[in-house]
Amino acid sequence: MARRVAYLGPPGTFSEEAALRYDSAAELVPFPNVSAVAAAVSTGMADEGVVAIENSVEGSVTDTLDLLIHESSLSIRWELVLPIEHCLLVKPGVQAHQVKLVFSHPQALAQCRGFLERCFPRVRAMAALSTAAAVEQALASPEPAAAIATRRAATIYGAEVLARGVQDRVANVTRFVVLAQEDHPPTGNDRTSVAFYMAEAEDRPGALVEVLQEFSSRQLNLSKIESRPSKESLGKYFFLVDIEGHREDPLVAQALERVRFRTGKLKVFGSYPRYKSD
Fold it and tell me: Is 174 a catalytic residue?
């Protein structure tokens, strides 16, 4: 029986393309937002879920980070990186000079900001739940409209490709992660993602440096570190760290135990194979 993989739908999104690359034999199940994808995996409607977590142009996908920090107990089991080519889609027959609205997901609109400012300076940008949903909205709009979406979406929904490669950076890639009930066993080439915040008693000058030294003193490379608001009080943050290595590796396990001791809360999102480009 094919495993069921949830993704941000409807069909034709980059998330669907990432899910297909992850497992082309899977039964793909679309959901309207990232929280719904996670809920589907948590409740058994899907075995795994594919969500975007980081873009090379616009940075982290905050909806996914906040979900992992505050809402979900799921683990990251896999990661993959997908090249992103945005296309401008319209209802067949609509000309560029007629377009009054451009629909897309906020991340896609941001990744194409320069193109829109140059070519459509007077067009209103409208946020959609996904790039594929944007195509449906553009086709149904009473005003001449366009959507920023995938070429596959044009085929699925009967739209016309008015322009290709409209993203502002040619080297535009998005990192996706696969959420599951458990993370991945060690492979020897792994990454571990965690989040922590400082307890009030430990919130003092040098405290964060001391936490990070638990990794550097063990020669553990950190491939990313960033912060997100705790949503509890102003000035209180979660720090998110990607560590090269698996949580079961002795040195990583030692470091995490010391970080747990030094912080108010440590949440391990999971360990998973590091992405390898073809």
Answer: yes
